Amino acid sequence: MRIVTRVISSLTALATATAVAACSSETQLPSDPEGGTSASAVAMVDSALGSGGVSRIEIQLFPGELVAREVQVDADDAEEKIVSGVTAIDPARGTLTLELGGLTVAYGADTRFRTESESHEARATWEAQVQAEIAAGGRPLVESRRNPAGVPQSPDDPAFTATDLRLENETDEPKIEIYVDGDNLVSGDGSQVVLRVLGLSITVNGRTRLGPDDNGGGGQSSGTSVEFEMGVTAVDAAAGTLTLSNGTVVRVTAGTAISAEGDLLTLESTAAAVAQGRPVRAEGRGAVESPGSPTVIVASSLKIEVDD
């Protein structure tokens, strides 16, 4: 879960995917006495999504509600995602039914299946594990990913076919990461706005934080704790660094916990995979060591995967 606790001073980035000016941490959007988002904040969202541009946004939702906990710009990851607990699986049809709005995710022969311990799980084994957790009364958390189409999907179209299904061994808030444009802005009345994605009407109101997703700490101050998840473009094993696709440098030290659940366990193997042109992705947590250009993060935890 990625929580950004800063106030947006401009939401132009929602339409342009460029940098967004923000205030200091631990501050939320100004709200009126009734708890609704201020008219100026709603106007910024309305103006941004109504400008005709295309943006990739991350919408974190309150569990059990179609109310956004946070809306962020997340332009550095091309894939679209849904994170949600699963209430049902139909192996014959190749579908998952999600807690998040009752959405249905389809999967098939081209889908990659992952668990916490296996990055290339057999489909039947993966399905059996999900079925067992549901039968035991659980709601297994699954991250569904797909490659985006050339244009944003129609707001009323709920279709989502996963190219990658990841069974997570943790809890997280439901989340949608998707490309949007002005068609996804349904209404606004001065106290809230409604975004329509995948056939769901999601409310943005006084409970919602609005902020950019730096995906690597850009604009953060030194010492700030951040999360990152992004493609890797370069590795310097001797220096102990990874360079992410947005230019951020992740420094790996003796104190960095490299997850054994990843596909690659050393910087040397990661460097070899990058040199081979394989799609390497790094995700983890750390502290901003240098907020300059490039931003440098000292990783406390790191998981490295290959998305092929």
**Amount of beta strand:** 35-45%
Shape, principal axes of CA atoms: globular
- Average pLDDT taken over every residue: 79
Report the radius of gyration as a whole number of Å: 19 Å
Count of helix runs: 4
What structural class should be given to the helix and strand makeup? mainly beta
- The CA-CA distance between the termini, in Å, is 24 Å
Descriptive account of the structure:
The protein is mainly beta and 308 residues long. A hairpin with a 4-residue loop joins strand 17 (241-244) and strand 18 (249-251). The longest helix is centred in the middle third of the chain and has 13 residues, at 123-135. The protein is globular, with a radius of gyration of 19 Å. It has helices at residues 13-16, 39-49, 123-135, 267-275, and strands at 6-8, 22-25, 55-61, 68-73, 80-90, 95-98, 104-106, 112-114, 141-146, 164-168, 175-180, 185-188, 193-197, 200-204, 209-212, 225-236, 241-244, 249-251, 257-258, 280-290, 296-306.
Index terms:
10-stranded mixed beta sheet, 308 residues, 21 strands, disordered N terminus, 39% strand, mainly beta, 5-stranded mixed barrel
